[in-house]
Structure prediction request, 443 residues.
Amino acid sequence: MSIPFDPAFIQRVEKDPFLGVDLLIALDTIPPVSVRFHPEKVHSKLDILSEVSWCENAFYLKERPSFTLDPLFHAGSYYPQEAGSMVLDTVLRQLDLPTDPSVLDLCAAPGGKSTLIASFLANKGLLVSNEVIQQRARILKENLTKWGYTNTIVTNNDPKDFDRLPDFFDVIVVDAPCSGEGMFRKDPNARTEWSEDNVQLCTGRQKRIVMDVWDALSPGGFLIYSTCTFNSNENEENVSWLIDEVGAELIKIQVPATIIEGRNGIGNYCIPGKTETEGFYIAVLQKPAGDKKRQKYMRKGDFTVQKDLMDLSNFANIDDISIFNWNDKLLGLPKGLEDKMLHVQSQLRLQKMGTTLGEIAKKGIIPNEELALNPFLNCYESKIELEHQQALQYLHGDTFSLAGNQGFQLMTFQNESLGWIKHLGNRFNNLYPKEWRIRMNVQ
Prediction:
């Protein structure tokens, strides 16, 4: 038996000519399943139904598989993401951006939009992905690590903290916390949390979040505002309020015909029953042009460039990165981005910066999981290809009989990296991160 809608929500929808009763019917149907493939990793053989037309490398599946039991899911070969939120790809490709833009994904966990932005940037420019709740920030870090791009930072800060980075970002994506009406089909329990009071609470919170981060947007830069809800309070009215408050300009985006223009032409909607998606709203605003505040980049901590690291070069392509020693952890940062990244590190609480290549130990370099999953930097040649069951056991944290040479070995499945072991000859130490391990029975 399905969970009923709140009567006040039904009344809202029925009285809104923009929505109507057809939405209520659509919200009781089966939701589509969609994924977005990593452009540089092996594509899993999922049962594909069709393409998602507004996003590169994105597809609908015929049915929802057990992602947990697919080793390539853990390798970051694809990300299960709701198709509506993938409209962000179409939006980004229409913006007039500098060659190496700096992008902030402000409310980023669990990481769907951040991994999409990382693919769009393709290791050019800088992506800062933020999540205010610490546990969710850890999940964000895991997903961005598995996606494997070097030009990324994960922070754990309140939106107000970004006033320490004035005029810093060319794009700020605010996928604002909302009343969640667009998730009523995918997550029926969300229906029990809806109320008129919560809509008003979310509306006020969204205004505060956007205003808290506005000064961090560069003059002429773009703020992409989105929610997963249908009501005008949290969407068009908030966007109109912001336009009046800060003098922003609404930017029109070309989208497929099934994506509906918002009320009074403000933003665009994905609406179940009209679009093969859950509910999603997106609008683009441009900050007025003006002079940028002069940036004085600051470095926090004792960073020194490492030279002659022959041991590290066995593991990583180090030609195009700068290597820094941070408490005996070796970080790879893209050349030319060092000052920007370290300036962010000096101002905010970081969960991740660049790619952790390895750790300095008495007997040499211990390679890090972030390097294993980075397809651009990982060049380690001593690998062991695992069968499907072996791969699941490895991801479960098990040890088992395994042929191979002693020393560090890179575990792969279908030639895609999973992580490291230390082979001891008659046994091995499983170095896959404990907090990532599969918890369900894989036997």
Q: What stands out?
A: The chain has three domains: 7-286, 296-380, 382-443. The chain has a mean pLDDT of 94. The domain at 7-286 is CATH 3.40.50.150 (Rossmann fold).
